[in-house]
Amino acid sequence: MTARGGVRAEQREQTRRALLRESRRLFASRGYGAVGLAGIVRASGVTKGALYHHFDGKADLFRAVLEEVQQEVGRRVAEAAGRHAEPWDQLTAGCREFLTASTDPALQRIMLVDGPAVLGWREWRAMDEAASARHLTEALTELVAAGVVVRQPVAPLAHLLSGAMNEAALWLASGADRDPGGGDLADTWAALERMLDSLRASPATAPRARASGA
């Protein structure tokens, strides 16, 4: 690549980053339906032609913003889980971080409200699975294999838990004005923690450690 080509590539990337940054800000504060392309290009300081060079339209731009948000939440979940050594603690820390992230007003509207409405449930769900939901599946797979969670098919369990957490996150998003002190989040986490604890294998059903010399 020539020096001029490198400069142009960098300019294109800067334009794309500006479009993503400003559209994310507008989508989060106003909602998808209230944001027009004219407002996005004006806030980004680019032309409408530049926008169409990178994206097919507003829905395509929103899709890119949603992917960025979901990947960000996925990283937060993975980092929270990674701060613990025990698989069970990793699971609970990741679930708690997902709920905490879902209370962030800058993420709520894009990820939970407009995401399914704009793209449709199937596409939104596929994107969610590619981001944070896969961490849940991986954690449950390890716990079932280790006998910490009662042996069962992981796929339906992961979908049920993921659906429960998404529903809880939507409830938190819709009820953000009820408890500015954060009680709703604490109560939701307590309920989810009890649900998770119910999955643990009892001593009678967990695999017994082999005795020395057995």
Q: If you had to describe this structure to a student in words, what would you say it looks like?
A:
The chain is mainly alpha-helical and about 210 residues long. About 75% of the residues lie in helices and about 0% in strands. The protein has 9 helices and no strands. It starts with a helix and ends in a 17-residue tail after the last helix. Residues about 205-214 have low confidence and may be disordered. InterPro entries: Homeodomain-like_sf (IPR009057), HTH_TetR (IPR001647), Rv0078-like_C (IPR049484).
Short description:
The protein has 214 residues and is mostly helical. The protein is 75% helix and 0% strand. The protein is built from nine helices and no strands.
Layout of strands and helices, then pairs:
Elements: H1 3-30, H2 37-44, H3 48-54, H4 58-82, H5 87-102, H6 105-119, H7 121-146, H8 154-174, H9 183-197
Helix pairs in contact: 1-2, 1-4, 1-6, 4-5, 4-6, 4-7, 5-7, 5-8, 5-9, 6-7, 6-8, 7-8
- How far apart the termini lie comes to 66 Å
Uncertain runs with pLDDT below 50, 5 residues or more?
204-214
Give the overall silhouette: elongated
Instruction: Give the ordered list of helices and strands.
Output: HHHHHHHHH
| Overall pLDDT score | 87
Cα radius of gyration in angstroms: 21 Å
Strand tally is 0
The percent of residues in helical segments reads over 70%
Largest sheet: none
Number of helices: 9
Strand content: under 5%
Structural class: mainly alpha
Protein name: TetR/AcrR family transcriptional regulator
Keywords: DNA-binding, Transcription, Transcription regulation
Organism: Streptomyces synnematoformans
DNA-binding region: 36-55
